[in-house]
Amino acid sequence: MILPRLYRARLFILLLFVLLAAGAFLSLNMGKMSLRPLEVVQVLFGQGPADHQLIVFKFRLPRIVLAAIVGFGMAISGAVMQALLRNDLADPGMLGVSAGSGLMVLLFITTVGIQGMASAALLPLLAFGGGLLAAFLIYLLAYRRNHAPSSTRLVLTGVAMNVGLSALTLFLTLKLDEDKYEFAQRWQAGYLWGDKWYYIGLLLPWVIFLFIYIITHSRTLNTLELGYEISTGLGVAVKRKFILLAVAAVAIASGCVALGGSIFFIGLISPHVARRLVGPDYRLLLPASGLTGALLLLAADTIARTVSFKADIPAGIIVTMLSVPYFLFLLMRAK
Amino acid sequence: MGKTKEKTSNADQTAVLPHLGGRPFFGLYMIIGVLLLLLAAAASLSFGAASMNLSTAWTAVFYFDPSLTEHQIIHSLRIPRTLADIVAGMSLSLAGAVMQGSTRNPLADSGLMGVNAGAAFAMAISLAFIPNQLYTGSLFISFAGAAMGAGLTYLAASLNRRGMTPQRLVLAGMSITLLFGAMGSFVSLNYGVGKALAYWTSGSVAGATLTELKLTAPWFLGGLALSLFIARSITILSLGEEIAKGFGQRTVLVKLLATLAVLLLAGVSVTLVGPIGFVGLIVPHIVRFFVGVDYRYIIPAAAVYGGVLMVAADLAGRLINRPAETALGIIFAIIGVPFFLLIARRERRAFE
Q1: Local structure of B61: helix, strand or coil
Q2: A316: chain B residues, CB-CB within 8 Å
Q3: Strand, helix or coil at A9?
Q4: Which helix (H) or strand (E) segment is A127 a member of?
Q5: Which residues of B touch A159 (CB under 8 A)?
Q6: Record: contact B189-A185, CB cut-off 8 A
Q7: Any idea what the Cα angle at residue B105 is, between residues B104 and B109, rounded to 5°?
Q8: Does A103 map to a domain?
Q9: What span, in angstroms and rounded, lies between the C-alpha atoms of A76 and A249?
Q10: Which of A89, A186, A189 sits opposite B171 (nearest CB)?
Q11: CB-CB contact of B120 with B197 (8 Å)
């Protein structure tokens, strides 16, 4: 049966949503102590023994929700950056925006430490500040008078920024004691450490609000992808929209980075997968890539949680290992 | 190291090459470079956590007296360290120059090409599974890791039908670095060797010994000889592949030899000082400014000035907050990032 493109795309989005829900349910069953599906259903309806309730509501559910939000946010941010830079290989991780957020968070952890509610509220803001600073620096360094922003220059500048910020981060981590060092290392590798309900309560509105802002601009993104000159011709205020959307993308990424660590590649891979499913229209692409990202990170985190390694392995490591081959494949075919 | 011999079999080559950069001052630059190197080495022998004057360093080198503590410090710590600096600096710059010439990529640098990450991953494995092993063992392991990282990056960047572009090489290097980084942290988290690995990763020559130097010397000399040997072919290759083919050059062979030289040299430096980026990027660009675009001049000059820069940077790292040391990798990242941006900005024609 051949459906019109729009219906097919909507069907795919629905399918992704169902998959995500099913994945979350499956993930609830899995872990160091496995529960049977029936037991999970019981717990979800407020019954079942207290220890099962503890496992599900205190440990697994927050982690799953966080994985989904972080994956969603990173993917949206990546999709927006790819449209703005008109470069399929752009991603907050690659561009050094995550590294900027990371440096800020690390500075905070090394000087103050992570305790209580105040730091939970402060961390995403600090990460936002760091990410914005890095993005601003990249933009400034790649900026040339009387020229539209050049994507190649922005990408190269971003890579350099990434290397420099990583060196600074390394410099800081060397001064940490063994415990804090381990936390920093995990965090850098993309560890979903903020799996507490109050962290999620802060992150969720942030992501939803920004997502709504971005999706109302999906037509602008469609136009921008045609090229800056064409967009100007079509009546888009390129510079203003570029900056606003870039800030939104950085904001959404840095919120996720603050609680999920620097997870590379989700923002890069998900829009690609989504593009294959629903096509290039950003009105459909944005939700599809967000859901793909959520699904990917959820899967990676479930693997990290379930397979028993000696230590608790950050989900970001698994994401990177799975997605570098795909990235290299994209690189091979890129024009 | 004087001018490379001008023996030509092909008349066309002689017609083109002298115009590229028959710099009359090349000899002068080399002499200045060697003098600077000697000066930097002398300073590196005398200054450090314990400061001594130049005459102490001189007598320690030439009239060694085992009963003096200062002579002992210089002999057992500072001489190997300075030599390691020189060898590593030379290797990195040579590798950078050869890469930049043979790939026609102004942003090529062994640190950005997955070499360091590969070596770091191999080190993580060796720290986790075979601790307390001999130097020779870890030497060969990091060497193998470096080769693997560089090989994969080259492969990934060149498999595209349209060939290797600077941007593609940088992105491939970046993603290979991330991949090895992820696998490295996987291993180090699993076996609790993170901190040990981080020290190694930040790059230090403090632990260099004469044994290590002796072990790497043949590889270094091999890489040096090979890059001088192919310098002329690289100049032609740097004009463009079609032109090189037109001159009758076997470009595939030259590229293979260049890759071999890069692997040897990058491996040597990574085993001696750990993963350090940007030296191979910076030095050839500075040298090119003085001696022109001919790789017959760039390659020897890059070797000498690479040694100078490395010794100077290490000395700075020792002196900035004495008696603690600042890691070399961090110093070079601080110098290197602005430099990278400058080059990426200036050579915009290549990227747009």
Answers
A1: helix
A2: 182
A3: helix
A4: helix A116-142
A5: 170-171, 174
A6: yes
A7: 125
A8: no
A9: 7
A10: A89
A11: yes
Q: What contacts B12, CB < 8 A, 6 or more positions away? A: B247
Task: Give B-chain residues touching A162 at CB under 8 angstroms.
Answer: 174
Element (H, E) at A204: helix A197-216
Residue A287 neighbours by CB under 8 Å, 6+ apart: A13, A215
B151 touches chain A (CB under 8 A): no
CA distance, residue A130 to nearest chain B CA (Å): 18
Please choose, from the candidates B185, B40, B25, the residue with its C-alpha nearest in 3D space to the C-alpha of residue A185. B185
Q: Is residue A175 part of a domain?
A: no
Number of domains making up chain A: 1
Q: Say whether B333 and A188 touch across the interface (CB within 8 A).
A: no
In chain B the domains, ranked by start, together with CATH numbers, are 79-345 (1.10.3470.10)
* Rounded Cα–Cα distance for residues A163 and B266 (Å): 19
Q: What are the average pLDDT values for consecutive 10-residue runs of chain A, which has 335 residues? A: 71 88 84 73 76 77 90 93 82 79 80 62 80 86 69 77 79 74 73 77 88 91 84 82 89 85 82 88 91 92 78 80 84 73
Count each helix (H run) and each strand (E run) in chain B, helices first. 17, 0
Residue range of the domain that includes A82: 5-95+190-333
Are A320 and B156 inside 8 Å of each other by CB? Answer: no
Q: Which residues of A touch B107 (CB under 8 A)?
A: 156
Does a structural domain hold residue A162?
A: no
Residues of A in contact with B198 (CB under 8 A): 170, 173-174, 181, 185
How far, in Å, CA of B77 to CA of B153, rounded?
A: 36
Place of tokens 């023994």: A49
Question: Is the distance from CB of B254 to CB of B234 less than 8 angstroms?
Answer: yes
Residue A197 structure tokens: 């309900």
Task: Give the global pTM.
Answer: 0.77
Quote the radius of gyration of chain B (alpha carbons, Å): 20
- Quick: pLDDT tens for B218-251: 889 999 999 999 988 888 888 887 888 888 888 8
Count of CB atoms situated within 10 Å of the CB of A247: 17
Q: Which of A167, A311, A327 is the closest to B190 by Cβ?
A: A311
The shortest CB-CB distance from A181 to any of B170, B182, B195 is to B195
Q: Is residue A111 part of a domain?
A: no
Structure tokens belonging to residue A31: 């872990």
B181 touches chain A (CB under 8 A): yes
Distance in angstroms (rounded) separating the CA atoms of residues B79 and B74: 6
